[in-house]
Amino acid sequence: MASIHHPAAGYRACAKTLAVLAAAAAAGLICQQAFAQATAHRHIVPSSGGVTSANAAPQDVLPAPRLIPLQAVMSQAYPTIGGNADGSDVWPCYGRSTPNADCPTIGNPVLPLPHGTLVNGLPAYSWALKNDDIFGYGGMGNGIGCDAYINGTTGLPYSQYKPCGQITTFFEDDTNDPDDDLLQRVLVTQGSNVIYDSGVVDFGPAGPITYPVNVELYYDANFGYWPGADNGPNNGNCVPDIGYPLPAPAFPGYIYQIATGSTCHRPIPGKAHIHTETTLGTPSYHQVSGQRCTARNVPSPCYVVSWTQKHQMVQDWDVFMR
Description:
The protein has about 325 residues and is mainly β. Helix content is about 5%, strand content about 35%. The model is unreliable at about 1-30 and about 50-55 (pLDDT under 50).
């Protein structure tokens, strides 16, 4: 099996934790958020029905254990990250078996938004680089261009970051593996130039849940770098370490991101390629000390992590900048 390892490169302070997910899981949805500086999110929609575990079904009627890609798009983002009262994004928003306070109803006459439904932004191939130049949407775009240098973005924190869209991947998890960490890296390039690199994002293990599950991973995104963030590596949308290294040899209860050393360039008109690698991996922790921790505002000793790959899938698609 492959080993995945990335060294520490920086640290940001924690803003949100996962705390308790049981109530959300009981309602048919787990929604996971990250630091205020991070733009990565996870939604898990568990199976419903009488089978409590994939182990309860005969092995010859189960799909092979794997991650199955379903859809990958870049779609419109609400212009304010965390616009709901609870700090979550306005969308995506999932219907639940009991009403979801963020999107409780649909239809005329009004009906509860049912379990198994999704409210999301419009997907698109063509994207504007400049603000207020949202062609192709009939005025329905959010008004923010995708070039971070000119769209008003001044940093990674939610209050400073102006997303033009959401990079979203959907997949079904048939692995029956609730214990290993879910990892993803999103890399966006124009030719040899990198314009976005999420680094390795660790969403943590799924925990006790009924398989199979549908999973959505999404990132509020623009491209390139903002004023003052032109010097790489790990500049602008080539994300530095966020929430890493770790204070203890375990998943910390929040999404963290590990820089990969890319240098981001400004986007230009033309095609951009989006490449994602999604992995389930078993973590191994190694203790380090001194400046490797304290230089990143983490008490010494601290921990770095590598993973042994168990399952992986890849999703690729193109968008076009104008």
